Amino acid sequence: MSSTVSSQHSALSTQRWLCLSVTVPYEAAEAVANFLAELGSLGIVEGVRDLLHPEATTTEVQGFFAQDTTQTELGDAVSRYLCDLGELIPGVGSPTPHFTTVTDGVWQERWKEHFPPLAVGECFLLLPPWEPCPAETNRLPIIIEPSMAFGTGHHATTQGCLEAIELLLRQYGPPSAALDLGTGSGILAIALAKLGATQIWATDIDPIALDEARKNGACNQVFTAIQFSDLLVDQLPSPFTLIVANLFSNTLIALASLLGAATASRGHVILSGIQLDQESDVLAAYPSPAWTLISRFPKDEWVTLVLQHG
Fold first, then answer.
1. Which of 36, 50, 147, 14 is nearest to 99 (CA)?
2. Within a 13 Å sphere around the CA of 148, how many CA atoms are in the beta-carbon half?
3. Confidence (pTM)
């Protein structure tokens, strides 16, 4: 799943940038962020739902563009997109995009503000590289560089996967062979390694994501436990006793037979990237008695499912 922020900040020199800001419902934020990227945004900041204030229903999405970008054309394109999006997501309305000019330093500080340390489950602490690990914590730190790759841990689907991994490994111990399918930043493979798994495949068809995942694996000193690869699931040395797939519902449905073939008897799959209204469709693709739903982790409008293979 996509991260809350993407960035090409390392490529930005000291200069000024055009910042487009628009406030939309949480459910629309990811779609708007993707559209800004399609328009050529060099960096996107997407607000994260504040669980301490669940009554809030909207968030601000910011896109950073080259200063010479035509403001009128950009604003018109976003307004038209929001109008179309409103037919799919109620409550989008007709928000007006606002423009400001920011310096490189301001942009980077805004970007970093969206990555505070984050405790997930009972044992993980997610940190960006610039945050020191608290000396008094007994949590396992996972250091993730927020970048163009997916999965910073701030998205509900990634958090659901981390909580599911924690649950399964507490009950069954480290899997003898694990697969993180569509690894993105590598965060889920790293979590598996931190909890003791030693034979992990982390795969992705996106070479940029794989490069970021390798860097994060090395940063977390778990590189020897993880085999990073662009192989497809039917090309891997299965069966796996645990497969984690944080993808999209339609992809999970399409992969059902392949995941069934790749999962060991009595093994588990963690399926995420599922919106609540798509849960029944995904479960229909993993029917009983071949699969048994043993746990689910709903968060916001998303749900993560844990199934055991028969």
1. 36
2. 14
3. 0.74
Two tokens at 245? 């797939």
According to DSSP, residue 274 is labeled E
Helices 187-194/207-219 angle, 10° precision: 30
The DSSP string of 175-223 is -SSEEEES-TTSHHHHHHHHTT---EEEE-S-HHHHHHHHHHHHHTT-G
Each of the 310 residues of the chain gets a pLDDT tens digit; together they read: 434 444 444 444 457 889 999 999 888 887 898 888 788 887 777 765 554 555 668 888 888 888 888 999 999 999 999 999 988 887 888 899 999 988 766 666 666 666 778 899 999 999 988 888 888 889 999 998 876 445 566 778 899 999 999 999 999 999 999 999 999 889 999 999 999 999 999 999 988 889 989 999 999 999 899 999 999 999 999 999 999 999 989 999 999 999 999 999 999 999 999 989 999 999 999 999 999 999 999 988 889 999 999 9
Q: Which residue has the tokens 């059902």?
A: 256
Indicate the pairing of strand 240-246 with strand 263-275.
Answer: parallel
Q: Following CA atoms 32, 216, 262, 122 in sequence, which dihedral angle do they give, to the nearest 10 degrees? A: -80
Nearest to 5 by CA among 186, 36, 27: 36
DSSP state of 155: S
Edge-first strand listing for the sheet containing 58-66: 5-7, 43-46, 58-66, 16-25, 98-103
